[in-house]
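Table 4 source record.
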Amino acid sequence: MKIGTDAVLLGAWAPCDNETRILDIGTGSGILALMMAQRNLKTEIDAVEIDPDAAALAHQNILLSPWTDQVHIFNSSIQEFPTGKQPQYSLIISNPPFFINSLKAPDKARNTARHNDTLPLSDLFENTSKQLTENGKAAFIIPADAFENWKQEAAGFNLHPSVVTWVKSSLEHKAHRVLVTFTRRIKQLVPENEFIIYISRSVYSDEYKQLTKEFYLNF
């Protein structure tokens, strides 16, 4: 799987400050784990990936990075990932598979990355809730039309939106993604804003450049 805009957006947007330990669920090539390492120097990061080939690639990418001692790759599903006696992650981040009952590609690895057969939403939130510290936060990027369903599912595991950003390809488009942070606190008023990726065809907006400039060589 190529590195996509979703992962870059989430990795640059996710609120993170003085994290004690970070968990990346479904790391793929390792992009989010690496971005978290770049933003949180010296913080330990565990990255879980169910596909063995993707996990091997992520491990290789970590070895080629400046953060080899910081990031740890685990070839495992999150359901089977060992949990400690106490929740240990102050930040959990994931660009999860979110296609449900839709047409699948012939490529098994691509299906694993994009379809939620191996990671149902209930499993994602159950394990996030188990692993998250009391004051921790979980950051995801999801389809805009799935947001209400995600909120309802998350509430069943005592996780509630704390920050919401609606992502549009351009001013003329409807929001197609949502960047959202969940915490255990219920907010009466959740801050929401919009984010535009392009100002014209293939021309990135200034806000996209500003957000992601630490991760692109040409910005």
